[in-house]
Amino acid sequence: MSRPRRARVPVTATLLTLGLAAATLVGVPAAQAAPAVQAAPVAAPEAAADEPFSVLVFSKTAGFRHDSIPTGIAAIQQLGAANGFTVDTTEDGAAFTDENLARYRVVVWLSTTGDVLAPDQQAAFERYIRAGGGYAGIHAASDTEYSWAWYGDLVGAHFASHPANQQATVKVEDHAHPSTAELPERWSRFDEWYNYQSNPRGDVHVLATLDETSYSPGAGAMGHDHPIAWCQDFDGGRAWYTGGGHTRESYAEPQFLAHLLGGIRTAAGVQDADCGASLTESFEKVALDSNTSNPMELDVAPDGRVFYIERDGRVQIVKPDTGSTVTALDLDVFTGKAPEMRIRKAVAAVLTGLVLAFLAAAPATAHSGKLKLTVAGDGAGGVTIQAAYADGHRLDKLVRLTLTAAGSGGRTVGPLQLEPAAEGQGSYTTGPILSPGTWTVRVTAPAPHSGAATAKVRARAPQTPSLAPVARDVSPARADRSTGDGAAPGWWRPVAVGVAVLLVVALTAPVLGRLRRGRS
User: Fold this and answer.
1) Residue 402: which residues within 8 A CB-CB, separation 6 or more?
2) Phi first, then psi: what are they for 264, rounded to 5°?
3) Which residues are in the ThuA-like domain (predicted)?
4) Taking Cα atoms as reference points, which of 8, 3, 4, 99 lies closest to residue 56?
5) Most confident of 167-181, 415-429, 472-486
6) How much is the CA Rg of the chain, to the nearest whole Å?
7) pLDDT tens column, 67-83
8) Nearest-angstrom CA–CA distance, 59 and 66
9) CA-to-CA distance for 169 and 212, rounded, in angstroms?
10) Which residue did the predictor score with more confidence, 198 or 29?
């Protein structure tokens, strides 16, 4: 059945055209049991000056019976004596009549289990809540009345499982609520920690969650969002629940007692509490400006005004007092596809290629122990590497090839595994190098003639973005040529590039002129 609730004033959050995302609090996991020992005297929190009221503690069980129930009753009675409210107790469902329930501001369900009320008693309790009564559930109150849908909505979530009793950390999410106001942000305590059949967040206001990384939650773990205490305005009344309270020792802990006192008092309605702050239904999407064109950036001023800028250069202000949008500034921005810019980049690329064409390095040779390394090439067609041993033996295999860019901001390419094109051949050609500039080539040879050598090669502008090494047979005669492709560096290449640049400039000059005249 749908969950009836008290009407609330919606909290509005603002977003441009696309609306708002509702924020929610993160919940804490439930607790487990502690060893049974004699309960210590209860240290009640300082009393608050309010009109007296009455509390009914209901502890009937039709399933598992917690041995902490008597200790819990005694603790609540001591809280009442110290804080100005009277406490009656019962395990008789016959106490749930309209006349009897009207005597109490709140009914505390203390570790009840199973089906504890007859249908007419259930109906009386529903009428009591709808008339403005309060409900406070402790621990196994969530292990109660599984077939009573209204009660399931009232308690918030039903028990599913629990691991062994252990120490765990409770993360307090709301320090404004009286039941969590005196608790530390991370509250470490020993208890029996419940896993629930569903996560109530969004339907209830989560006050605290369990940090499942601080204990072993077992097979029923709820994950990072594990609510353990929450409250809600429900069907005309008030509801508060805590998953703690399995152990007798719980009712001797000053912080747990403060937690209980705040829950009882707020459920009774004698102390104000906001239990709708994080509910999904408490938020409303409001479009500030539905006549936007293409907003790019947005910011909110301390006075509530919303500033955003359109792609066409208009700086807009949404005024919260009137709901109107005004243009504060109109910036001169360029919104075209920039053909002139593309032409300039093309010319620059041709000029760069012309300069780099003269930078092809002569073969570089390096010796390191038994290994001799010869590197040649311009990077555009790959780098040719010839390695041999000083004693004249061919190098059958290169183990590692590392290319390192020279200078600051350089990067390493590799290590790359290279295999020879044929047995006994010691020449290899890498794929094109992405970035022009000076590169350091280091080759390491395997046993039995282990050694390493380093040489430098200057790379031209790349022709393809691939860095994958390609092994091929390159003769020593070809490898000694500076171009690395077997062809001598002809004098005509720089001339051809220069002619190409002149042609590009001649063809683009009229276009650039027309563009300038069109913008003026």
Assistant:
1) 412, 413, 414, 415, 416, 441, 442
2) -65, -45
3) 55-265
4) 99
5) 167-181
6) 39
7) 999 999 999 999 999 99
8) 10
9) 8
10) 198
